[in-house]
């Protein structure tokens, strides 16, 4: 796929990308944009509506970085595991339209209120929909906005049962075992990526887990689910866990456990980038 083309309409010939707004003639000016595969953040962005109230959210810098690289102003972004709405708040800041799906109605409602508090200078649409991302009729949702494809998808599913998000059987965090979790995750992938524009990208944000003395490479298992559906792996980013207050208090205990148990304490998660083939 050709990612870049010369924009002949502009008086000064400008190298533009088809997937973002980066002007490559000025590439040195984009200091904010990370291009390395190791992301280290020492603190989360807590500005504006990003209150960080939801246990299991991701830091706003993740959707921000991804949207700067993989979307243009006015593009449509889909987040099938919306949680507290971090992606949609960033959509408003960056002038991208966003649709978020969240199973838990209380969480969705709270997210919606907060998203609406964020300024919306570009008058983009940021829609919160309550439902099961495995089965929701995405086509009809998109039809409401007279579109039939989105340009980017961000998936931040539960890391299986590490955090139990609800008592709902349809919640991926309630999958009875790893096999069921992967099957449910695959169902979401099938249901949503059907509506991703060809040649465009989607991101999976996921961590591993530890169970009964064994490291379970959840991230790689999920990656496999995506790869077997024919998507192209473009990058695996390793991102640090910024230390929450709770973790800081337990640091010594975990260090001791690690020394006794012969393992390393989790300090990272993955952001995997896939491209839909043309
Ligand atoms: C890891 S959290 C996402 C957090 C989000 N990125 C944020 O910053 O707040 C995963 C979310 O997926 C939701 N979820 C679980 N199963 C789902 C399903 N089948 N359909 C839609 N949402 C689901 C959970 O309720 C939870 O809020």
Q: Strands across the major sheet, in which order?
A: 3-11-12-8-7-4-5-6
Fourth-tier CATH superfamily name: Vaccinia Virus protein VP39
Helix content: 25-40%
Cα(first) to Cα(last) distance is 8 Å
- Range of strand content: 15-25%
Query: What small molecules does the structure contain?
Result: S-adenosylmethionine
For the sheet with most strands, the description reads:
8 strands, mixed
What's the SSE blueprint?
Layout: E1 4-7, E2 14-17, E3 38-39, H1 61-70, E4 76-79, H2 86-94, E5 97-102, H3 105-117, E6 126-130, H4 138-143, E7 150-155, H5 178-193, E8 196-206, E9 209-211, E10 214-216, H6 218-227, E11 232-240, H7 245-261, E12 268-275
The structure holds S-adenosylmethionine (SAM).
Considering the chains and any ligands shown, give keywords for the structure.
two-stranded antiparallel sheet; Rossmann fold; alpha/beta; binds S-adenosylmethionine; 278 residues
């Amino acid at each position: 796929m050709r990612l870049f083309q010369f924009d002949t309409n502009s008086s000064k010939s400008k190298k533009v990308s088809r997937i973002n707004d980066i002007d490559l003639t000025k590439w040195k000016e984009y200091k904010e944009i990370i291009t390395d595969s190791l992301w280290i953040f020492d603190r989360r962005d807590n500005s504006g509506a990003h209150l960080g109230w939801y246990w299991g959210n991701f830091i706003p810098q993740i959707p921000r970085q991804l949207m700067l690289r993989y979307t243009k102003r006015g593009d449509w972004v889909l987040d099938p595991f919306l949680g507290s709405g971090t992606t949609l708040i960033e959509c408003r800041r960056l002038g991208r339209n966003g649709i978020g799906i969240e199973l838990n109605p209380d969480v969705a409602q709270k997210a919606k209120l907060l998203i609406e508090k964020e300024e919306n200078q570009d008058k983009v649409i940021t829609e919160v929909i309550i439902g099961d991302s495995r089965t929701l009729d995405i086509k009809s949702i998109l039809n409401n906005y007279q579109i039939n494809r989105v340009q980017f998808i961000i998936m931040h599913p539960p890391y299986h049962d590490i955090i139990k998000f609800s008592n709902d059987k349809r919640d991926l965090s309630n999958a009875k075992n790893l096999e069921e979790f992967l099957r449910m995750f695959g169902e979401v992938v099938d249901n949503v990526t059907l509506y991703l524009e060809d040649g465009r990208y989607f991101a999976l944000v996921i961590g591993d887990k530890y169970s009964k003395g064994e490291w379970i490479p959840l991230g790689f298992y999920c990656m496999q689910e995506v790869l077997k559906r024919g998507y192209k792996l473009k990058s695996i980013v390793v991102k640090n866990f910024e230390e929450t207050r709770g973790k800081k208090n337990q640091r010594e205990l975990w260090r001791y456990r690690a020394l006794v148990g012969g393992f390393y304490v989790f300090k990272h998660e993955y952001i995997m980038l896939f491209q839909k083939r043309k």
